[in-house]
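Meet today's protein:

…
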Amino acid sequence: MACRTRVSLWSICACGRRPRQGAAMRNARGFTLLELMVVLIIVAIMLGIAIPDFHTVLLNRRLNGLIDNLYNSLNYARSTALSNDEPVTVCPLGSAGGTTCGSNWNAGWIVVKQPPQGTSAVLNTTVLSANGPTLNSVPIGSGSSVTQITFNGLGLLSTTQTLLVACDSRGSSAARAISVYATGFIQASNTPGMAADGTTSLTCP
């Protein structure tokens, strides 16, 4: 039967029912302590999984960035030597703005043109962070550490064939490298821990 009681803003129809206060309270309740603890445990587990992966990604990005920069510098030096028909050298950074090579690749490197006549000039400078990956040179074959990589006017290597190895806190298993051959060919390794030839294992100091 339809309700005939007059309905206003402040009244309730006699045939309707007022919601129970207990039900409203149950619908509006918050988290219990147990539920909150479960959520916190799940978040802690997820962070425990994600943080090591993020750290690995960060280390890989730094290594790859160093290798990419060095690879570009070497190719730039070779192409400049070919274009200008004059020797161009990539070597460890000595003093800032200077054309004199240093002895420690960890400081960074410079690209220097060395014309037969005239003054040497720095074409490019890369400075490495003290907290980043390390960089060392190893001769391909036998010999001592290489501190100069020079391309002649034909684009050929006029110094010792070199393996440049980048390492971080993970050691040899994660190392990356660039090989510079007598023909002037420059090749970066694709497999961590291995040289570009795919057979030579890399060693970190």
About this structure: Residues 1-15 have pLDDT under 50 and may be disordered.
